[in-house]
Amino acid sequence: MEKTLQELAEYVGGTVIGDPSVKICGVMGIDEAQEGYITFISNEKYAKKIHQTNASAVIVSPKLKDAGKNLLVCENPYLAFAKLVELLMYKKPAHIKGIDTSARIPKTANIGRDVSIYAYVAIGENTQIGNRVVLYPCVYIGNNCTLGEDTIIHPNTVIYDDSVIGRRVVIHANTVIGSSGFGYAPDGQGYYKIPQVGITVIEDDVDIGANTTINRAVLGETIIRKGTKIDSQVIISHNVEVGENSLIVSQAGIAGSTKIGKHVTLAGGAGIAGHVKIGNNVTIGGYSGVVRDIPDNETYLGAPALPIHRMRRCYVIIEKLPELKEHIKTLEKRIKGLEKRSAHSKKSSKK
């Protein structure tokens, strides 16, 4: 597909500086971009690359509108980039409508219209599958589950009994929804398995990456609220609640009964202890360990996690520890020398 820069600006709600008739056939990164492609700058520290790129145009914020190149100026360059990738380059998968003959579907299951159920899918008793749902090969859906309209489940995903999946949910390969949480009661000799009799609820417009596990609740519900995006290789334990439009990045782990607010970001490798409450609009830095409640509108970093301004000061000190150690040794030697001279002076005065 080929569009003029003006057409692209109208599509994303931006304005053109330069030649509006220049032809654009695709999107590339700023270092690799060639003539005929558009690229983007979302961080001002890379502004100098605008003059180094071979791209025919660059998406920028209003702060860079005087860069002197063909520009598509918009408030959110990264969002505009995403929309143009979708417009110019993304090919939406064409799903084959119908049910493969190898799929195993009981008579008690209720299957909606225009579904795409591929080879070796297994669906449990009394499960509800909404209209236009796509189940890729080898998906397993347990008993008494509900899948909302336009949901897509990728290969080898397992959804345990009683799980509720909303509309327009995307779950990628090898993910497990509704498995038992890690709950054991010591009995003096070993550990007694605590039955996990709650359910898992995934609300509308949630994306879940590959190889992620979301446990069912011990009692009640584990809930992922609408619009949340979860990366690959994440584990969310029993009775966790994740608020709307949150982001959980790869290798994060959330222990049981934790409550996470709206618009929260957990960066890669972050770990959240059990029974913690995290407020709205909170950001947790990568590989941080949260062991206590965090109020709204905060950014925390480190292990244990501290407010970012405090942890940055700690990191500065940590970097200087070797020098500080040597400085302390020097001070200790000087103090010992002063103590010896003081003791000698006292003896001399007595004589």
Record the SSE blueprint.
Blueprint: E1 3-4, H1 5-12, E2 15-17, E3 23-24, E4 26-27, E5 37-40, E6 57-60, E7 71-73, H2 77-88, E8 98-99, E9 110-111, E10 116-117, E11 122-123, E12 128-129, E13 134-135, E14 140-141, E15 146-147, E16 152-153, E17 158-159, E18 164-165, E19 170-171, E20 176-179, E21 184-186, E22 191-193, E23 199-202, E24 207-208, E25 213-215, E26 221-224, E27 229-230, E28 235-236, E29 241-242, E30 247-248, E31 253-254, E32 259-260, E33 265-266, E34 271-272, E35 277-278, E36 283-284, E37 289-290, E38 299-301, E39 306-307, H3 308-319, H4 321-350
Parallel strand pairs: 4-5, 5-6, 6-7, 8-10, 9-12, 10-13, 11-14, 12-15, 13-16, 14-17, 15-18, 16-19, 17-20, 18-23, 19-24, 20-25, 23-26, 24-27, 25-28, 26-29, 27-30, 28-31, 29-32, 30-33, 31-34, 32-35, 33-36, 34-37, 36-38
Antiparallel strand pairs: 1-3, 2-7, 21-22, 38-39
Summarize the structure.
By secondary structure, the protein is α/β, with parallel strands linked by helices. The chain folds into three domains: 3-88, 3-Layer(aba) Sandwich (Udp-n-acetylmuramoylalanyl-d-glutamate--2,6- Diaminopimelate Ligase, Chain: A, domain 1); 157-309, UDP N-Acetylglucosamine Acyltransferase, domain 1 (3 Solenoid), CATH 2.160.10; 322-351.
Description:
- The protein has 351 residues and is α/β, with parallel strands linked by helices.
- The protein is 18% helix and 27% strand.
- The chain contains 4 helices and 39 strands.
- The strands form 6 sheets. A 12-stranded mixed beta sheet has the order 8-10-13-16-19-24-27-30-33-36-38-39, with helices on one face.
- Strand 38 (299-301) and strand 39 (306-307) form a beta hairpin.
- The protein starts with a strand and ends with a helix.
